[in-house]
Amino acid sequence: MLITIAIPAFNEEKLLPSTLAAVAEAGEAFSERGWEMEVVVCDNNSTDHTGEIAEAAGARVVFEKHNQISRARNAAGNAAKGEWIIFIDADSKPSKALFEATAMAMDKKEIVGGGATVKFEGGKLVPSPFFTAERIWNRISQVMRWPAGSYIFLRTEDFHRLNGFSEKLYASEEIDFGRRLKKLGKKRQQRLQIFTQTPISTSDRKAYSTSYSEILKILFLGAFTAGRSCRKVKNCDWWYDGRR
Q1: 48 lies in a domain?
Q2: What is the value of pTM for the model shown?
Q3: pLDDT of 81-99, one tens digit each?
Q4: Does some domain include residue 137?
Q5: CATH number of the domain that 67 lies in?
């Protein structure tokens, strides 16, 4: 069994090294089973040393010139050689326990794929709006079985069957993808699993680089346009303005 870890990365020279180190350490969960693991990083037109850092760590690097998270995810996914793909954000760190839970799920035919709840690195020290948002999202993820973009796993053949992530969206592409994956599983009497006991650790940097007014703008546009605002990059500056 070969597992592909697909990481989209835009100007991530600060956090990518620790993410790759965490992936390598967590990967022991696969090697103990006799499975192999490859890491594919998509350099999404970075202006820093993201690509060089990934190569130095032993990752295979692919390039996507159009700055869009959906395209970066797809470029990494399309380069996958493994039977399963695990998408991990460049600012997130998986644990060995999470990979172990994922490996167990991969052994079950009734699992179409899934994800994990999220946990900000700062914990309760994160500003209250973000700590509250974490709790709300995790509850939604559990009830709706929507995987967070920071951790999504599925069979590679199903990634291609779904034609990857929607390139019409500049944000919330993971929700759209999760819905389609869940629908595919339902047709085959499979279910999508969200791990709650082994959350993915993700950076809290946005809590300190984003104003409350920007957060309100994002929520307002998302709610009152039924997600259509995510089709325009100007409405998604939070993800693309380069603040790191």
Answers
A1: yes
A2: 0.90
A3: 999 999 999 999 999 999 9
A4: yes
A5: 3.90.550.10
